[in-house]
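Friendly challenge for the regulars: who can give me the structure tokens for this chain first? No prize, just bragging rights.
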Amino acid sequence: MNEIRVIPRLDIKGPNLVKGIHLEGLRVLGRPEAFARHYYEHGADELVYMDVVASLYGRNSLLDIVSRTSREVFIPLAVGGGLRTLDDIQAVLRAGADKVSLNTAAIQNPQLIREAATRFGSSTILISIEAIRQPDGRYEAFTDNGREATGVDVYEWAVRVAELGAGEIMITSVDREGTGKGFDIELTRRVARSVPIPVIACGGAGKAADVADAIVDGAADAVSIASILHYGIARELAASTHEGEGNTEFLRSGLTYSRIHGTTIPAVKAELVARGIPCRV
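First reply, four minutes later:
Bragging rights claimed.
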């Protein structure tokens, strides 16, 4: 087994880091650059920036944030949301991103994956799949931050993505996202076993043990987490006069979602080590 990557995910709306449940009901937590710097300093292996309103405007608006972050954070940074053309991808990479995350544009034009992988390299192309379980048990891929149905079967799409040259897949369970109920192990495991490229599990972590479960039981190669990291760090930043730009009343109340047990990247990695899972410490 290769070293497992722990990847904080930062959903961004305008200038703010936001977080919600099922990719909805977003609360402002603060400045994404401050969180990114903290996670880098405390052992994150990579970061993911997602512009969660990019699909509404047809463009990604993170270039300035990416540029500022890349001057302070020296681990791989993936950026997604609203990237629709090769020129869009090139602009984000020039701003300092190491990878791009594609979803809507890839489903609408699958050949974009092949073209982007050929031009920028497969390792640069991360395909984000937002999955929602349907009443009949199948999983359908959604776009626009989990809002738009596509009719595309998740497993068939994952196989095709790999065939088109993507370097890795991030599979997000929209049903579990932000809930703290744990990852959708069935979903992650089946995708991971269907493709020859790395799979990142995303959506549902409520405690450090859930991360280990996604690796051991879900066969994931990496795990992307948000809520279990963000809320504790947000309260710390909100307590300082120069970083407290989030929803400070919510943060200082100590209230989060009942299944979310805040943790840190070192604690997550300690759990992985305790379970015999290799990771960079």
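The chain is about 35% helix and 25% strand. Residues 110 and 160 are 9 Å apart (CA to CA). Your move, everyone else.
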